[in-house]
Design brief:
2 domains, 207 residues, six-stranded mixed β-sheet, alpha+beta
């Protein structure tokens, strides 16, 4: 299990509401097409052939897309943030939304997300603050993560009661019901780890 931060810049800064309501997150330039079966060197070749990147820019774009497509895995955790709040989610698989493929800075490269909690940005711990401050579009946390209750680990233990963790208010009831249905189905998965994650998420929501 890994924790990633996805940095929102440019036109994506205004997409948090869409991310939370439609249960996804995006990264990378959509003009390079679907990368579902692409390894790191395949992505490098595609970026180079596009003519949009040179040298350092190409390496930065490669790093972001490869991390988003290949390094992130179903069941990892992701953080996004605006100026006031940090949102924690459980990542799903990569998929490509071709409707966005001609839009620079669009949202074609996506991963499904089950959003779990949000915290005041001022109330997260120093490790999370550093992760969110990274210049990279996609950054993996390199430290040791807890075995359970990720939301409690995120919070600064010195924060007051007024900075308590809470569920993202902008997710509607229908979306919550749909997400719970997915988790309930995952309880019957042949993958033991997936069953445990689903059970933990359901119990966590019920608290």
């Amino acid at each position: 299990m890994n924790l990633f931060a996805v940095k929102l810049e440019g036109t994506r800064c205004g997409l948090i509401k869409s991310f939370l309501e439609d249960n996804y997150v995006c990264a990378g330039d959509p003009v390079v097409g679907d990368l579902e079966t692409s390894g790191r060197e395949d992505i490098r070749s595609t970026l180079a052939a596009s003519g949009a990147y040179q040298e350092q820019e190409l390496e930065e774009a490669l790093s972001s897309l490869d991390a988003f497509v290949n390094v992130m895995q179903d069941g990892d955790y992701v953080l996004i943030a605006d100026e006031e709040w940090v949102y924690l989610g459980d990542l799903g698989d990569y998929f490509y939304d071709g409707r966005e493929e001609n839009m620079k800075g669009g949202t074609a490269h996506r991963r499904g997300v089950t959003w779990l909690k949000s915290l005041p940005r001022s109330g997260v711990n120093s490790a999370v603050q550093a992760l969110l401050a990274s210049d990279k579009e996609v950054t993996r946390y390199s430290g040791v993560l807890p075995a359970a209750r990720m939301d409690l680990w995120l919070a600064d233990s010195s924060a007051g009661d007024g900075e308590a963790v809470h569920s993202p208010a902008r997710v509607d009831e229908a979306t919550i019901a749909e997400a719970l249905a997915v988790l309930k189905a995952a309880l019957h998965s042949p993958d033991a780890e997936r069953r445990e994650r689903a059970a933990a998420a359901i119990l966590h929501y019920a608290r």
